[in-house]
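@channel sequence for tomorrow's demo:
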Amino acid sequence: MSDAIRVGVNGAGGRMGRRIVALTHADPALEVAAAVDAEASGLVGQDIGELAGIGTIGIAVEATLPENVDVVIDFSTPEGLAAIASICHERSIALVAATTGLEPDQRTTVESVADVAGLIVAPNMSLAVNLVMKLAVDAARALSSSPGGVDVEIVERHHRFKEDSPSGTALKFGELIAAEMGQTSHVHGREGRIGQRPQDEIGYHALRTGDNVGEHTIVFGMIGETIDLTVRGQTRDSYAYGAVAAAAFLAGQAPGTYTMNDVLGL
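structure tokens (generated this afternoon):
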């Protein structure tokens, strides 16, 4: 294991953190070197392998990041991500950041990691989602000069426990499309007699149902035809596999900001 990439997981006790631990442990090129979670979680001191359902692996949950880490994967909270990013900046540790809902100052802290180490910030770690983002950009670019105009709507569906709305992934889709097509208005749902739909807006619609792990549909509506790009996650492993792939890619890279397109080789 001496040549394995040493991975630290921040938010290790959460649902995503536990799956990342399990998948990292199963990869011979990687090693679970640290598991970090808040003191308030009540998990500090417990073996993370036991919590992840893979048996004892000799790594206890800690409240702070130990020294022997090459790259950190974060699935925690905005506060937790900002705290671990400060440590990564201080120690020049690469960071894969999947937490959404950051405040501007928290985002600045996270982005500072790129000055000293590799950084990937992605609102969605799914390889399929990131491929569809590329397809959405290609579609937006191709349709940007459509003579009849194009209406863009983004519909996302997640589990009832999700706290932010719309999802960070939906907002990222909108950001990428607007960069190609120039929409300046972003609206969240519609109600009442609001008049004809303007062409310079992107509409977002958030559904919260059951235990849905996440799905997104990007609608390009034209006169006489429609394009729907849809990606659905069946299990949270789709996000965990993407995060692990991102960590394997990022370890050893030069300082700077990278994207999931780099991980996918797009």
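heads up for whoever presents: Residues 126 and 239 are 4 Å apart (CA to CA).
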